Amino acid sequence: MEVTLQNEQRSNPLEGAPDPFPILGEEAPGKAQDARGALDTDSHSDFPSLVSSTPAARLPPKSAWGADSGPRIKANVRSQPMASDSFTLSAIVLPTTKDGKPVSLGEVMKQVMSKFKVKIEASANQKARQTTFHMKAESEKDLERAKRHLLSFLSPVVTLTVLAPVSTIGFVIGPRGATLKQIRDQFGVKVDVPRKETLPSDGMSHETSSGQASPSVDLDAGEEPTLPVTIIGPQPLALEARDMITSIVSARSSRVTQRVKDIPSHILPFVTVLRSHFLQIAQGGDIQLTLNADREVVASGDREAVIRVVEAIKATVQSYKTALSSVRLSLPKRQHRLLAGKPQEDIFMKSKCSVIVPDAEDPSEEIAVYGSPEDLPSGFATVMEMANSQYIHVFPLPGPIALSRQLLTYITRINYSETLNARHPGASVFIPSAATATQVSVLNVDIVGEKSVVDAVVRQMSELLGKLIGATKEVPIDWLSHEVIKVKNAEKLERFHEVDNVQVFFPPESAQQSSVLLVYDPFSPRASPSPVEKEKHLDEVHQALLKMANEVADIKTEVVPVEKRWHKALIGKDGNILDSIVGEDGTLLVKFGVEAGNPSTEDVIWLRGIRPDVDSAVLKICRIVEDAKEDAIASSYFTEFEIDKEFVGRVVGMQGVNINKLREQFSVRVDVFDEVEDKDKELSKKKKSATQKAKLKITGRKENVDEAKKRILVQVEKLADETTETLKIPSQYHASLIGQSGKYVVRLEDKYDVKINFPRQSGDGGEGRRELRPDEVVIRGGKKGVVLAKNELLEALDFEKEMNNTLKFLVPGRAIARILGRGGATISEIKDETGAQIDIERSAEDKTADAYVTARGTKDAINAARTAILTIVEEMPEEASEIFHIEQKYHRSIIGPGGQGLKDLIVRCGGPSDHKLQVGLVKFPRQGDISDEVRLRGEPGIVNKLKDELDKKVSVLRDRVVVAVEIPAAQHRNIIGRGGQHLSELQTRYDVQIQLPGSRGYGQVGEPSNAGDVEGADPGDIVKVSGSRLACDAAISAMKSHLKGPVIDGPTAVVSVPLMYHDAALQQGALFRTLRSLGVQLEQSVQRSRSTFPAQPPEPVNFNARIDTEGAPEADWQVKPNYQCVEEGSSEWTLRATDVASLERAQNEIQVAIQQAKDKTHVGFLTLPDSSVFPRLVGTKGSNITRLRNETGTDITIGRENNTIVIVGSKSAIEAAKETILSQVMASRVGRR
């Protein structure tokens, strides 16, 4: 019987392969069994063919007078069967003994009854040729075991095969063979899973070891190769084992992947557009459809849905083969660019016709259009419309053809077409392929797009090619030496560009071209336009390359035949042996197997390098291979021996760690075999051996094999002496016995060579052992070591019981600080005096809340610690608490900056000055809390004083007013004083807060009560004073009296300044500073109401236009006459000076400024694409912009919120300033590149 199972998953065939050295002495982890859906042999639902016809008898109720209630005399009552079952067999095959004599049915039944202590009755129906068996046992488990044993004797042995996809083999085997072992043990059958080596590389059918051929696997059709899983055993049990394997495989192979390949190009669009139709055919099944680049549709998902969809796709393709017609037309090759790729999709969506365009390398100019006869005219028209939809420019590369190919190589290697496409959106640049370049005499670059964009690309291409004329050169160097030169002279090749500005381009090795291209880099800022300079640097690099080529001129390539199995020996661990063959300089190239270029064989090694290096490497390879062959011969020695099966798991180790260690240390192979008893041994009357054996086979060098065997036998001997002791230790003592980081238990393990396991700890074989109870501790090891470790552990337990008494009590939160003492001195003293360990559990949120104190140690120690702590608590003074309400708007004023106001308040009331001791005395609501409750807690006297002070403070705050006073901004500095000293004295003397414009609290102090009095004043002159009314009036009077400064009493003069020249004459405040330096005071009768020139350009910025010279950076330049929209009239400036000379100089400065303002007839707006160069234009502390103003005689203002520079001056002056700025911008950008 064969069951074919397939899986769509194409995973690694090695995944899930059985471990060649499974752990036979341990059960698989429970989690792994659950994940694989392991069957319960006691479950009737898992075995429908063997369902019991008689319900299992229930356990009789326990008597109140039974053994549990106290009598020690056991009643002589015979136990009654508690489970029964009946089943019928239609054919019975009786077993035979070794001499061929048949065994009777009675003997078989007797043997089963004696082995499993069950009752079996049989009744035969001669007409129906059936035998019914009735079985009874004390438990369901014994009943099932006996039934399977009986079936194994009476049923014919059959061989069943399940074809499982390769990706599911790992799930059948399970982790470390757990699932496979469970199936064998549960059903008593043999299950043979072929090794991964039996899978054919071509996916075709092959012969198995049993002589049966597995069905062919069509990998091209998307199906996964399968392996036959063979089941041998009694028929009923073999069928159940097969069903279990089938369920595992089905759970992992319910999904499949199939492909529809080689769909004709002209039919593919008609198929892809029907995607939604194909998904409907899936009838709700989970399926995914994807289209590969090689005209292949991949369907993945539920098996039935995939099959239906694939059949529908195939039928659709076949129908279109006969339904479509075609028309052919000839178009110039350059227009093919407009019909390939996405345009093909657009043509199909518009005309329902597909278009086939020949490849770019194909010289044919014929286009084919496919569609239904009624759609072909529309398709033809759409193709012609698309072919003429864009402008195409054919750009020929300058010749001769040798130069054209050099230029093509360069722009190809630097991906210049992508650069052009990115810089000019809307343009597509197509360069000839390498294959085309060797077949034509003229190389053309096709540029497609709007004409304006194409023209811009042509200009940029022309500019580059102009720089490349005379900047390229080819050096003839044998292509065999290219890789050697690159490896040996890597640093020198990089320095060519740094020193000579020359790039070196080696052709790809697959091209086998014996020429190297040199290019004088046109994009480098160091590039010289001089042809002489280009030729000079190219010649220098040319000579250097020829010198490098001469040094490696004697290049040799050799292919050494070496079988693939020896390649690993040549590579070595981490490639160390290969490194020694290649050498330190790395100039020798080595490739193994298929990488050598011959796909027909892997038994070769390819070498290329300087002849002496190659010859030396070949000798090393031959010597290493010979040594490896000798080692293989010497390592063919093996030995076999048996050990008790119960020790196999410990010998192998968790996940084979012990065996792997032996393999790596001695370079041996270790195989473990499980000896399985056959049916003849079951029937034998000889006494069964008390222990089962497992066979080990070690292969390798004799001395290494003997040493590995010796170590295994020593370990087995040690395991044979191993015993296990379980101690009952309460869990509260575990942490103390284990110690910090396990140091105590590790010391015991090392001292007595044992393993001690506490609950929730894993040791050797931790997965296989049962989970420990909370009060269990297991000691495993040699008998003597276990006894000694047990005694020492129990002694430590007695000590911990004496020392681990615990006492927990509550103390007030206010006393914790006193209990701890400064720096923990008090609590440390109590610990030292009493010998107890003391922990205090404080609330992280409320430091004043009551806290629990836990004392650990001897009874005397913890009682003494409790007495000492409570004594401190009793000595604490009486505590009072108060709660009263303060509006939230006053909280910040009371607390003060950084809490300083509240700290000073506590100290004034007799409270502690230490911040830590102040905590909890006054508690305000947290920020964001809407409560206005303030809590006081502490000594009654301090609490009462705090309450009184807070009442006074709040009363003052409630009477607080805000008064505004107008003080000229120029006099604010006099109010503040040096270092703010005068302002601080005013606030302290009058108990007020003075806020000047621009201060942090100016906006938070609130609106002044006399806002109407200062309504027309300049906001920069308004000073706010907050406090009581009397205090504010007194502070204001003091400030005003302090402002009475000296007034200059000297000659005066009046100068009339037109408002239109006001801004220009001030020279951005420079005129005011000049007048102050002369000791002259200035008063203006009228202030201008708006600026005399605009800050923004009058017209929108246009960056597409170039200005002036070619190559200048993109910018926008607009010029406008000055003083167009200005105020009429003039302002009278009154000058007061200390002497006549100063007054005359001041008048002269003003007249000069007015004249310069008159000369500033134009305003220029220079707008750049970005402001990244503005910092460089300004310079360090404005040095550069000041220099520009002085040199050009203009006012230059660099925008802070935009990219515009405003230049004011005469027309010629602003033009000169503009040119200077643009030259600096150009230099800055070139420097960044």
From TrEMBL:
Per the UniProt record, which residue ranges are transmembrane?
Answer: 150-173
Instruction: Give the UniProt keywords, A-Z.
Output: Coiled coil, Membrane, Repeat, RNA-binding, Transmembrane, Transmembrane helix
Recorded GO terms, molecular function? RNA binding
Provide ranges: composition bias, Polar residues.
Answer: 1-12, 206-215
Q: Where is the composition biased (Basic and acidic residues)?
A: 33-45
- Region Disordered, residue ranges: 1-79, 194-220
InterPro entries for the chain? KH_dom, KH_dom_type_1, KH_dom_type_1_sf
Q: Start and end of every K Homology domain?
A: 156-250, 554-626, 635-717, 721-798, 803-874, 878-955, 959-1044, 1146-1226
Chain coiled-coil ranges = 673-722
> What protein name does the entry list?
K Homology domain-containing protein
Species this protein is from: Pisolithus microcarpus 441
